[in-house]
Predict the 3D structure of the following.
Amino acid sequence: QVQLVESGGGLVQAGGSLRLSCAASGRTFSWYVMGWFRQAPGKERELVTAITWSGGSTYYADSVKGRFTIARDNAKNLVYLQMNSLKPEDTAVYYCAAGGSYYLLHTPGDYSYWGQGTQVTVSS
Protein backbone atom coordinates (compact mmCIF):
# COMPACT_ATOMS: atom_id res chain seq x y z
CA GLN A 1 0.00 0.00 0.00
CA VAL A 2 1.13 3.50 -0.88
CA GLN A 3 -0.37 6.52 0.78
CA LEU A 4 -0.30 9.91 -0.92
CA VAL A 5 -1.23 13.23 0.65
CA GLU A 6 -1.38 16.48 -1.30
CA SER A 7 -1.01 19.95 0.12
CA GLY A 8 -0.53 23.48 -1.10
CA GLY A 9 -3.79 24.18 -2.87
CA GLY A 10 -5.72 27.36 -2.39
CA LEU A 11 -7.02 30.52 -3.98
CA VAL A 12 -4.73 32.60 -6.15
CA GLN A 13 -5.18 35.44 -8.60
CA ALA A 14 -4.59 34.96 -12.29
CA GLY A 15 -0.91 35.28 -13.07
CA GLY A 16 0.10 34.07 -9.64
CA SER A 17 1.85 30.92 -8.52
CA LEU A 18 1.27 27.95 -6.28
CA ARG A 19 3.38 24.96 -5.37
CA LEU A 20 1.66 21.69 -4.62
CA SER A 21 3.38 18.98 -2.63
CA CYS A 22 2.68 15.26 -2.49
CA ALA A 23 4.04 13.24 0.41
CA ALA A 24 4.28 9.50 -0.15
CA SER A 25 4.63 6.66 2.32
CA GLY A 26 4.43 2.88 2.19
CA ARG A 27 6.06 0.73 -0.48
CA THR A 28 9.32 1.56 -2.20
CA PHE A 29 8.76 5.02 -3.57
CA SER A 30 11.56 5.15 -6.12
CA TRP A 31 9.91 2.43 -8.23
CA TYR A 32 6.93 4.60 -9.04
CA VAL A 33 6.09 6.96 -11.80
CA MET A 34 4.45 9.99 -10.24
CA GLY A 35 1.80 12.08 -11.89
CA TRP A 36 -0.42 15.03 -11.25
CA PHE A 37 -3.97 14.94 -12.55
CA ARG A 38 -6.68 17.53 -12.34
CA GLN A 39 -10.43 17.42 -12.60
CA ALA A 40 -12.68 20.41 -13.11
CA PRO A 41 -16.46 20.27 -12.59
CA GLY A 42 -18.16 18.41 -15.41
CA LYS A 43 -14.89 17.31 -16.98
CA GLU A 44 -12.92 14.09 -17.02
CA ARG A 45 -9.79 13.70 -14.98
CA GLU A 46 -6.81 14.68 -17.10
CA LEU A 47 -3.10 14.16 -16.78
CA VAL A 48 -1.27 17.41 -16.14
CA THR A 49 2.27 16.14 -15.77
CA ALA A 50 4.22 13.01 -14.91
CA ILE A 51 7.78 12.09 -14.00
CA THR A 52 9.67 8.81 -14.00
CA TRP A 53 11.28 7.41 -10.88
CA SER A 54 14.69 8.74 -11.89
CA GLY A 55 13.38 12.11 -12.93
CA GLY A 56 14.93 11.54 -16.34
CA SER A 57 11.69 11.73 -18.30
CA THR A 58 8.77 14.08 -17.89
CA TYR A 59 5.49 14.74 -19.60
CA TYR A 60 3.45 17.93 -19.67
CA ALA A 61 0.04 18.54 -21.10
CA ASP A 62 0.10 21.18 -23.81
CA SER A 63 -2.15 23.39 -21.73
CA VAL A 64 0.43 23.72 -18.96
CA LYS A 65 3.70 23.38 -20.84
CA GLY A 66 6.05 26.21 -20.00
CA ARG A 67 4.06 27.19 -16.92
CA PHE A 68 4.11 24.10 -14.70
CA THR A 69 7.09 22.09 -13.50
CA ILE A 70 7.13 18.69 -11.83
CA ALA A 71 9.98 17.55 -9.62
CA ARG A 72 10.58 14.72 -7.20
CA ASP A 73 12.84 14.11 -4.26
CA ASN A 74 12.89 10.37 -3.68
CA ALA A 75 15.02 10.66 -0.55
CA LYS A 76 12.26 12.72 1.03
CA ASN A 77 9.39 10.87 -0.65
CA LEU A 78 8.08 14.12 -2.04
CA VAL A 79 6.77 15.22 -5.40
CA TYR A 80 6.18 18.84 -6.27
CA LEU A 81 4.11 20.67 -8.81
CA GLN A 82 5.22 24.25 -9.32
CA MET A 83 2.48 26.21 -11.05
CA ASN A 84 3.29 29.62 -12.47
CA SER A 85 1.32 32.09 -14.57
CA LEU A 86 -1.90 30.53 -13.39
CA LYS A 87 -5.06 31.00 -15.42
CA PRO A 88 -8.72 30.67 -14.41
CA GLU A 89 -8.95 27.56 -16.57
CA ASP A 90 -6.42 25.90 -14.27
CA THR A 91 -9.09 25.82 -11.57
CA ALA A 92 -9.64 22.19 -10.58
CA VAL A 93 -9.05 19.60 -7.93
CA TYR A 94 -5.48 18.40 -8.33
CA TYR A 95 -4.57 14.81 -7.53
CA CYS A 96 -1.22 13.21 -6.95
CA ALA A 97 -0.95 9.66 -8.28
CA ALA A 98 1.62 6.86 -8.29
CA GLY A 99 2.06 4.03 -10.76
CA GLY A 100 4.30 0.99 -10.48
CA SER A 101 6.42 1.56 -13.56
CA TYR A 102 9.82 2.83 -14.59
CA TYR A 103 8.18 4.47 -17.58
CA LEU A 104 5.79 7.34 -18.07
CA LEU A 105 2.10 6.54 -17.62
CA HIS A 106 -0.56 8.69 -19.21
CA THR A 107 -4.04 7.61 -18.16
CA PRO A 108 -5.79 7.43 -14.79
CA GLY A 109 -6.15 3.65 -15.09
CA ASP A 110 -2.38 3.30 -15.28
CA TYR A 111 -1.97 4.64 -11.77
CA SER A 112 -2.53 2.48 -8.72
CA TYR A 113 -2.49 4.98 -5.87
CA TRP A 114 -4.14 8.34 -5.45
CA GLY A 115 -4.18 11.19 -3.01
CA GLN A 116 -7.38 12.79 -1.81
CA GLY A 117 -6.95 15.86 -3.97
CA THR A 118 -6.40 19.52 -3.24
CA GLN A 119 -8.47 22.38 -4.61
CA VAL A 120 -6.80 25.02 -6.75
CA THR A 121 -8.92 28.04 -7.59
CA VAL A 122 -7.62 30.80 -9.85
CA SER A 123 -9.58 34.03 -9.86
CA SER A 124 -9.64 36.51 -12.72
Observations:
- The radius of gyration is 13 Å.
